[in-house]
Structure formats: C-alpha cells, structure tokens
Design goal:
It is a single chain. This protein is mainly alpha-helical and 461 residues long. The longest helix is centred in the first third of the chain and has 53 residues. The chain starts with 6 loop residues before the first helix and ends in a 35-residue tail after the last helix.
Length: 461
C-alpha cells in the first residue's frame, strides 16, 4: 500500500537525510583532497565518470520504469510483483551486457582516456558489482512509488555509513598516498556497502509482496517505457563522460595550464560538491514531485499542477538566490576552511551567480518528468551536451578555464530556458493546452493533448 505521507513531511525527511549524507560526502572530499591532492581527486572523478556511464547503460531506464509501473499498478490495484519481475529481468539483461562492456574495455579506457593504468582495478571492481547497482534501482523505484521514503532513508544511511567505514579503513591501512590505491579503496567501500543495501531492500520487498504471481510480466509496457529512457540516458551519459574526459586533455593544450588534472580535480572534486551542497533541499523536493505530478496528470487535477508549479518555482528561486549570495560573500573563506585552497575559494565565488539556474533547473526537470515531458527534456539535454563537447573542444586550448566557464554558463542557461518554456506549456501555466505527444502507457492526458512520450531525466549538475 501507498503510505499516506504528505509531500511536506517526505520532503523534510529526505532533506534532513540528504544534508547529513552530503555533509559526510563533503567531509570525505576534504579528507581525500588532503591525502592524495588535487591530481588524485581528478583521477578519482574521471574513474567515477566512466563508472557512471556504465551504470547508465546497465540501468537502461529501469528505475524510472519500475517507479511508473508500480505507481500505476497500485493505483489500479493490479499485480505489482509481475511488473517488478519484468523490470528485474530487463535490468539483469542490460546490466550483464554493461558488465562485459566495462570489464573488457577497462584497460583501453584507463590508458587512452583517463591516462593512468592505475584506474584499471577500480573500473573492473565497479564492473563486477554493476548488476547489483542497476537492479537496486528497481527496488528504489518500487519503494519511492509506494511512499516508503523512511525505509529508503534508513537503508541509505546504513549504506553510506558502511561505505565510509570501509573506505576510511582501506585508505588508512593500505592506500597510503597512492592515487590508484585510493580510487580502489573508494570503489571497494562503495561496492560492498551497495551490495548490503541491495540485500536489505530485496528482503523488505519480498516481505511486502506475495510469494507467487499468476500474471505474466508486462513486457510490452516495460519495453515501451524503459527503452526510450535507456537510449536517451545512455546517449546523454556518453556525452557527459566524453565531456569530462575531454576537459583535462584539452586543458593541457592551453599555454597557461600547469597541471590540467589538478585543475579538473579542483573544479569537479572540490568546488562543485561544495557549491551543490545546499541543493539537498531542492533535490529532495524534486524527487517527490515526480510521482505527485504524475498522479495529478493522470487524474486531470490541473489546478493542483499549476499550484505546485508556482510554489515550486518560487521556493527554488528564493532559496537559490540566498545560496548564491552566501557563496559570493564567503567563497574565498569557504575555500580556505574546507580545502585550504585559495583557487577553490575563487572558483566558488565565480560560479555563485549560476546557482539560481542550476538549482531551479532541477525542480523544472522534475516537474516536466512528472507531466510526461521527458522527450522534450531529452532533446534539450542532448543538444546542450553536444554543444558542451563542441565548446570544450574549441575553447579550452585557447582560453583555458575561462573557456570552460563560458561553455558551462551558456549551455546551462540554454537548457534551463528551454525546459522552463516546456513546463509552462505542459502545466497550462499560461492558460494553454499542453504540448502534444505520447505518454507513458498508464497515463493519458484529457482532450486533444494525446499521449506524452517517455525519455530522459538527468540533472545537468
């Protein structure tokens, strides 16, 4: 059954959990940067970027598919276990192929793209645990659709605690100051904790659902929903990974660059985690707005959709302006306190004016996803990712980090403007009909709105 938790209660619960988890993540980044330096942090970020691509390919849209099919089955009193069984089979197939892909190509990726063979053991360890991570997405989608936010929070706390304990133990007793061993320590701690969390969620799911189901899994609905999502997610993740791998390579061609990997580590391993730390509030709200908007759209409650749209945009804008003001005023001080790096403090101040765009875009994307407008957002995300790659390839050798900032600002602003326009039309905020399209199989908009097509939901940050 769906728990009768309000959006406000669930948002407060997720916000508190996310703040604590992000605080722990920040402490880990501070510890790691002091232990292996900016260049080591850069190597870790590149390794995680490749792992993220493999995870996206292995997931193939199955988490969102599981969430939508579970919500639809609960709302129509259909067989939830049949839907989850089909999602597990689908996820096992694609995650197995991703495992082979990552294991086989690890030497090539480490040598030719990351530029350091020390990343090979970490990539192969991520490959072994890839099916567990991908199938865990099915379970989190199920618990999210059921409103079991408290269960997810408790399991996530346990996972993060075990991951941190294992990682710190390996870093202190085995890794030393070696960047390759540090990456492997992070991978080992995270994979072991992820396996434990998967086992707990699976046991809880089995307890909730009947042992047997007489119905055949809805393979048609799964393929129609997950395949477009997976294709768009994979293409988008591929462009993001290519973008991350291009940054140190193209930045090294700039005459003023001393250590391209260290510069990349400062930005992606120090500045961006600190800059996005306050967004835990909005990301929690965004996670919960997706099923809420889906239920409202399915029931034709457009007045509530417009109300939630206005309140969500207003809250995100006010909050992001406050966060931007703090980083503008205290950026250099935070850089010194957190990392002992004047460069990190200057970059925090430099990127602070972009926070209203970055924070609000997360809310806009979630609302669009709930209204079935993923196909439009997928086009926008793919367009801006492609422009990112083109701009970075062109500007980094000429302008260095100034070119990176120009590319970052231009593409995120374009993506936000396009997504906001789509939300305005889809939510009837201007008194117009939603944009036509095709919907997830279980949701249909009234009148001439037709169906809306599923596709990608990715936070650009």
């Amino acid at each position: 059954m769906i728990r009768k938790n309000s959006i406000l209660y669930s948002t407060m619960l997720l916000t508190g959990a996310n703040f604590l988890l992000r605080l722990a993540g920040m402490a880990f980044q501070v510890y790691l940067s002091g232990r292996i330096g900016p260049a080591g942090v850069g190597l870790l970020q590149l390794t995680l970027s490749v792992r993220g691509l493999a995870f996206t390919i292995g997931s193939a849209g199955v988490r969102t598919c599981a969430m939508y099919l579970t919500a639809g089955a609960l709302g129509r009193e259909k067989d939830v276990k049949a839907a989850l069984t089909g999602c597990f089979q689908y996820g096992a197939l694609f995650s197995g192929m991703a495992l082979v892909f990552l294991w086989t190509l690890s030497p090539v990726l480490a040598e030719e793209w990351i530029g350091n063979r020390a990343a090979i053991p970490s990539l192969r360890l991520y490959a072994v645990f890839l099916p567990v991570s991908c199938l865990g997405g099915v379970l989190t989608g199920y618990f999210t659709a059921c409103g079991r936010i408290r269960t997810l929070v408790m399991v996530e706390f346990l996972e993060e605690a075990c991951s941190a304990a294992g990682t710190f133990l390996l870093l202190a007793r085995w890794a030393g100051g070696d960047a390759g061993r540090a990456c492997l320590s992070v991978a080992a701690g995270g994979c072991a904790a992820g396996g434990l969390a998967f086992y707990i969620l699976l046991a809880l799911c089995r307890r909730d659902l009947p042992e047997r189901t007489e119905n055949c899994p809805p393979y048609g609905d799964i393929l129609r929903t997950a395949l477009p999502l997976g294709a768009a997610d994979g293409l988008r993740a591929g462009l993001n990974t290519l973008e991350n791998l291009l940054i140190p390579k193209r930045l090294a061609l700039f005459a003023g660059t001393v250590d391209a990997l260290a510069d990349y580590g400062v930005l992606h391993g120090m500045v961006f985690p600190a800059m996005m730390f306050p967004a835990a509030v909005l990301f929690s709200l965004a996670e919960l707005l997706v099923p809420e908007f889906s239920r409202c759209a399915a029931g034709g409650r457009w007045k509530r959709v417009r109300y939630l749209t206005r309140r969500g945009l207003r809250a995100s804008l006010v909050f992001s302006l406050g966060a931007a003001g703090i980083f503008l005023a205290a950026g250099p001080l935070l850089g010194e306190l957190l990392y002992g790096s004047p460069a990190a403090g200057q970059y925090l101040r430099l990127y602070a004016p972009l926070l209203p765009i970055l924070y609000t875009d997360a809310i806009v994307d979630a609302m669009c996803k709930g209204l079935g407008q993923q196909s439009a957002n997928a086009r926008y995300n793919l367009l801006t990712s492609f422009l990112d790659v083109v701009f970075l390839w062109t500007l980094l050798p000429c302008w260095g980090l100034t070119g990176y900032y120009a590319s970052f600002a231009a593409t995120h602003l374009l993506n936000f403007a396009l997504s906001l326009r789509r939300l305005s039309l889809a939510s009837r905020a201007e008194g117009k009909r939603p944009c036509p399209g095709r919907a997830f199989p279980q949701f249909r908009l009234p009148g001439r709105a037709g169906r809306l097509r599923p596709a990608l939901f990715m936070k650009r940050t």
